[in-house]
Specification:
This protein is an alpha+beta fold and 300 residues long. Among the domains are: 1-73, Rna Polymerase Sigma Factor, Chain: A (Orthogonal Bundle), CATH 1.10.1740.10; 170-295, Roll (Nuclear Transport Factor 2, Chain: A), CATH 3.10.450.50. The protein is built from 13 helices and seven strands. The chain has helices at 3-26, 29-44, 54-75, 100-110, 112-118, 123-134, 139-146, 150-164, 173-192, 195-201, 226-235, 237-240, 285-289, and strands at 202-210, 221-224, 243-248, 251-256, 264-270, 276-282, 293-295. Strands 2-1-6-5-4-3-7 form a seven-stranded mixed sheet, sandwiched between helices. Strand 4 (251-256) and strand 5 (264-270) form a beta hairpin. The longest helix is centred in the first third of the chain and has 24 residues, at 3-26.
């Protein structure tokens, strides 16, 4: 077997692992495949005769490629799309042909709840948590990828870990349960396009705000009144079918995160009467990144 043949065969042995690392870092199958392909190109252009552990070397490279992609993603402006107040950018990059069904299967294997929360972390936090907590990479090696000290890298992983494990305090359990019941009724009615049920769960003077990225017009928007807000929810019934409940800064809300890619968050305010008095529709990446999220499991 020639050296190129050996190199290709060795890379194929590590491909699944590299793809798994990249997917957990990027939350997108197509982006993960791009990162793996970039890693292969770098391998071909590098003299690896002195590399003792090819698997570790490749993992470091794919992590660095993924980190650069995460940083680039956070600075890329996305254009709003869609025809409802829940609309947000979902368009794939030119030339992408990722299969949504395949990506959904991969998201399920990772855990959709984990992917959603990971998407709220900064790129260094996400990389530190994924490489150390999910793939058992020593902090010294993770620190090398991040170009930070091991101590600083431990702090990044610790902050990420606290977000991933975020949960309401015991003394708030009853209030969270009440919020969850109301949010469930709202989401169920939205999924079914049930205008009457939506109006019933909304306060008559409910106020909905949406940032520019969430608004079809591309400008911040305010809707007031149960009928108007309910009509907007009906228009978003398809999207509601792919949304789920989550804790948003400690209160029950709704997240839309296809295949774990966080796109929209609905922060709900539930009044003392058990009706929703306020809805804040958030799609701005900077605002999303500042939220504390923990996806709630479905109740059986």
């Amino acid at each position: 077997m020639t050296d190129p043949d050996w190199l290709a065969a060795a890379f194929e042995e590590h491909r699944d692992h590299l793809r798994a690392v990249a997917y957990r870092l990027l939350g997108s199958m197509s982006d993960a495949d791009d990162a793996v392909q970039d890693t292969w190109l770098r391998l071909n252009g590098t003299n690896t005769s002195a590399v003792e552990n090819l698997g570790a070397w490749l993992t470091t490279v794919v992590a660095r490629v993924s980190l650069n992609m995460l940083r680039s993603r956070r600075h890329r402006k996305e254009e709003p799309v869609g025809d409802s107040w829940q609309g947000v950018a979902e368009a794939a990059a030119p030339g992408r042909t990722s299969n949504p069904d395949d990506e959904a299967v991969l998201a399920d294997s990772v855990g959709l709840a984990l992917l959603v929360v990971l998407d709220t972390l900064t790129p260094p936090e996400r990389l530190a948590f994924v490489l150390h907590d999910l793939f058992a990479m020593p902090f010294a090696e993770v620190a090398d990828v991040l170009d930070r000290s091991p101590a600083a890298t431990r702090q990044l992983a610790s902050r990420a870990r606290r977000r991933v494990r975020g949960a309401p305090s015991p003394d708030r359990a009853a209030d969270v349960a009440r919020q969850r019941e109301v949010a469930t009724a709202f989401l169920t009615a939205a999924r079914g396009g049930d205008l009457a049920a939506l109006v019933a769960v909304l306060d008559s003077d409910v106020r909905l705000t949406a940032d520019a990225q969430a608004s079809p017009s591309g400008r911040p928007m305010v809707l007031r009144g149960a009928e108007l807000v309910a009509s907007g929810a009906v228009a978003a019934s398809v999207r509601a079918g792919r949304s789920q409940l989550a804790l948003v800064n400690g209160s029950v809300g709704i997240v839309f995160a296809p295949a774990g890619r966080l796109q929209v968050v609905l922060a709900l305010t539930v009044g003392v009467t058990g009706q929703i008095t306020g809805i804040d529709v958030i799609a701005d990446p900077d605002r999303l990144g500042r939220l504390r999220l923990a996806v709630l499991p479905d109740e059986s």
